[in-house]
Amino acid sequence: MGAVVGTLTMQTKQRRPSRDKADDDLEMTIVCHRPEGLDQLEAQTNFNKRELQVLYRGFKNECPSGVVNEETFKQIYSQFFPHGDASTYAHYLFNAFDTGNTGSIKFEDFVTALSILLRGSVTEKLQWTFNLYDINRDGYINKEEMTDIVRAIYDMMGKYTYPVLKTDAPKQHVDAFFQKMDKNRDGVVTLDEFLFSCQEDENIMRSLQLFENVI
Amino acid sequence: MAAGVATWLPFARAAAVGWLPLAKKTMPKPPVDNSSRSDEILYVNVSGVRFQTWKNTLDRYPDTLLGSSEKEFFFNEETQEYFFDRDPEMFRHILNFYRTGKLHYPRHECIQAFDEELAFYGIVPEIIGDCCMEEYRDRKKENQERLAEDTEANEATDAPLPPHSTSRERLWRAFENPHTSTMALVFYYVTGFFIAVSVIANVVETVPCRPPKGSVKDLPCGEKYQLAFFCMDTACVLIFTFEYLMRLFAAPSRCKFMRSVMSVIDVVAIMPYYIGLVMPENEDVSGAFVTLRVFRVFRIFKFSRHSQGLRILGYTLKSCASELGFLLFSLTMAIIIFATVMFYAEKGTKGSTFTSIPASFWYTIVTMTTLGPVWDSSLVSGCFPPDGPVDPVLLGPKHHHLLHLQLLWFSLSNHEFTDEMTYSELCMTESVGFRTSRSTSLSSQQGAQNNSTGCCPRRARRRAAMRLANSTVSVSRGSVQELDTLQFKTTSIPPQTRSSLNAQPDDLKLNCGDQDFTAAIISIPTPPANTPDESLPPSPVPGILRNTRATAYTHETVKISSL
After folding, report:
1. Which of A90, B49, B123, B469 fits as disulfide partner to B88, beta carbons 3.0 to 4.6 Å?
2. Chain B nearest C-alpha distance from A148 (Å)
3. Is A117 an interface residue toward B (CB < 8 Å)?
4. Last residue of a domain, one of A94, A120, A146
5. Residue B26 and residue A166: Cβ atoms within 8 Å?
6. A147 in the same domain as A196
7. ipTM score assigned to the predicted complex
8. Residues spanned by the domain of A88
């Protein structure tokens, strides 16, 4: 049955993934992405069918074409953080969601990431976060990347912060971070160092627990 | 947008993981959403039409009836659905608002019904989408004006007076509603008669009469029978003054009355006489005095009280004031441009009449209004005519109906508006809620009192006029060319007049002197549809806009042509 559904639903037919902004509107009307079958997605993620349905209905309502491009992503994120400039952080987030580097987020990407962040194991969540911080995807977080991320977060927070951050200068914040994470003092943080350090930190662990069942 | 927030909220929360490791403290717990994701389908029965929607869809707008717990009052336990005894057609639009986040205004619906539905469901009209907002606003404004006008009409009806009204109130009522009493009616007709007499006297006193014995030169009748005319004028002015004072006395609010248009017209009509009485008979001021006498022609506007058509015309002008203003402005621009060009083109020529740019203004104005100049122009300017009459191109496609209304106005007096259907066709293409019935009602306005548009002819007519006034249609170009044109001629060749709305040929021979101005009644030349006009639909009307003026630059005179 799943196979029938799977074959009946069309495959991805993403055409002309051009990055030209002027063509974006036109592109949206041409590009139409349909996700794989419900069963497949259910298997791949930690959501059940109902949740996937709800998510998809909302997603489809917002993006009838089936994909989210970076501009839309930034706009959405800005809605939640109107006090600051969320565009930089949204950009990094977008890259983290867009695992295939296609320039747009399909529903599968969206749901996969949500599944990890909301229903995944602690390790998976931390891995995802590491991936987010590692801007150039080279497996290491160096100081520049970290500074960029922290600055982006500060920009986004604007005057109000959630969680509450003290008014550290980004540099001090980065230094503190490296102090904690970089065990072998080589100037970069690897995935293992990151995982290890985070699991040591009680605050982080407790906070991660809160993300269960946010959906 | 509410829907967006609801959809992306889990994503936003999840993305907060990103700054977790950077946080120094533990994050506070996120608010638990108890109205869980267990989505269910709700059934809404609106007068028998069953609608179904997700509960979440309705929850998007919690401050409306359907989004809040208020809908529980309408829940029918037996059928497990929400029952509303309202219009299902309208509900469709309301529900679409929840679904898409945009509220659209259905054009075929009555604006008041729509407003009532919105009020019932707790939706503010301000959120109507941009696509429909303009239409909504226009209709609302139109409706409000119509209502205001209707209530005004209702107040001014012939309802019997309250028993304890003072004589002042009764007098005012008699003035405003002549039908209420015989005396008022008599007075109404008498004033009307005297207005007509006054106007005719003004006209007749300039007619040349046979000269008295012993003189060769023709005299205008005004001078020959000076005493008679003076007496008639005095009588009229006395009556008008008496009427004005009576109205002033009777008016419930004197300040308001004095500021009203009709009162101003009354004053302007009688002031010249009194000023003339007190003015000394010396030469210097007599010129000014003559000018004052021109104001006597304003007495004709006193007919507004007697004629509804005139009032409607006045409202039309008033409500199209901005368009008229723009028209004037653009004409001025064009005049300045062409005058400048003409001046510099003619600068080198000896004996050119374009001695300065303001002097060129006259030439330009006269040509643009297709009157044609009287002096001959040099070869240069003959080869370079300014761009003739004001084309619709200048006015833009939006304003071409401006000119059509002028034709319509003419038809009011004549019932022979052959282009009426064209006009109504044209109107249908406008996006401003025109109705064909309007043109029929306007054209039959002066004729039979019955109308096709409603049970109450007067109301329908006024409504039609209001609609007309509210559209962007405007009357003729005001200052440059009145409904009468001025004919400027050196010879006494009668201009060509061709149409049903004819001037009396005799009128044109009124003044045979050189360089005299004559008022002539405009005529609509039956147009030879020879002009392609990009903005107008094919109709004979465009032909009127470009007038044959090929010979305007020669010695010959003028043709009277209308716009």
Report:
1. B49
2. 13
3. yes
4. A120
5. no
6. yes
7. 0.71
8. 46-120
Q: Which of B7, B21, B29 is facing A61, going by the closest CB pair?
A: B7
Strand B49-54, strand B75-76: pairing: unpaired
Which candidate in A179, A203, A206 is best for mutational testing of the B interface (most B CBs within 10 A)?
A203
Average pLDDT, chain B: 69
Q: Is A121 exposed, middle or buried (0-12, 13-18, 19+ CB in 10 A)?
A: exposed
**Residue listed under structure tokens 């005057």:** A159
Least confident range from A57-66, B31-40, B143-152: namely: B31-40
Please determine, for residue A87, whether its predicted confidence score (pLDDT) is greater than 70: yes
A118 touches chain B (CB under 8 A): yes
What CATH topology corresponds to B309-373?
Helix Hairpins (1.10.287)
Paired tokens of B152: 């005004």
Contact B20 A153 (CB under 8 A): no
What does the pLDDT read at residue A109? Answer: 86
Q: How far is CA B479 from CA A140, A158, B95, B337, B369, in A?
A: 80, 60, 52, 19, 11
Nearest Cα neighbor of B439 from B403, B414, B465 is B465
Please count the residues of chain A.
215
pLDDT at B328 over 90: yes
Which of A104, A120, A136 lies at the terminal end of a domain, its last residue?
A120
Taking only the tens place, the pLDDT of each residue in B282-310 is 666 667 777 777 888 888 888 888 888 88
**B6, B22, B26: residue with CB nearest A173:** B22
Count of A–B CB contacts within 8 Å?
112
- pLDDT of residue B243 exceeding 70, the answer is yes
| CA distance linking residue A212 with residue A122, whole number of Å | 10
Give the residue on B whose Cα is nearest the Cα of A168. B24
Could you give the number of structural domains in chain A? 2
> Does residue A57 sit at the B interface (CB-CB below 8 Å)?
yes
Q: Where are the domains of chain B?
A: 41-156, 163-306, 309-373
Rounded Cα distance between A173 and A146, Å, is 9
CA–CA distance, B170 with B161 (Å, rounded to integer): 8
Structure tokens at B19: 């700054």
- Give the range with max mean pLDDT: A19-33, A135-149, B1-15, B206-220: A135-149
pLDDT of the residue at B535: 38
Closest-CA residue to B505 (of B440, B560, B444, B434):
B560
Taking the CA of residue B302 as centre, how many other CA atoms within 13 Å lie in the half-sphere pointing to its CB? 30
Residue given tokens 């709305």 in the structure block:
B501
Going B470 to B471 to B477 to B483, the CA torsion angle's sign is: negative
Which chain A residues have a beta carbon less than 8 Å from that of B20?
Answer: 129, 204, 207-208
Q: Which CATH number fits domain B163-306: 2.60.40.10, 1.10.287.130, 3.40.50.2300, 1.20.120.350?
A: 1.20.120.350
Least confident range from A170-174, B180-184, B381-385: namely B381-385
d(CA B98, CA B285): 75
CB contact under 8 A, B28 and A118: no
Query: pLDDT class for B330, splitting at 50, 70, 90?
Result: very high
* d(CA B54, nearest CA chain A) in Å: 10
Q: Do B30 and A210 touch (CB under 8 A)?
A: yes
pTM for the whole thing? Answer: 0.48
